[in-house]
Amino acid sequence: MSADPGDDPHVRPLLGAYVLDALDPEETCRVARHLRSCDGCTRDYVEVAEASALLALLQAEDLRE
């Protein structure tokens, strides 16, 4: 792993797990470091976090037709 966050590959595939706090500590640090330097991944993170928050508001009745 590189010490320079700009050298890290994009972390989009890890964002869902990051939002759910399902990454190991090393991956969590990698994602957090990358998000500080990548506007594109940060925008994607916000979208994933918002979607996760909205899903948490759903109740079983909301899923029935």
From TrEMBL:
Source superkingdom: Bacteria
Residues covered by the Putative zinc-finger domain: 11-41
Matching InterPro entries: Anti_sigma_zinc_sf (IPR041916), Znf_put (IPR027383)
Protein name in UniProt: Zf-HC2 domain-containing protein
Keyword terms: Transcription, Transcription regulation
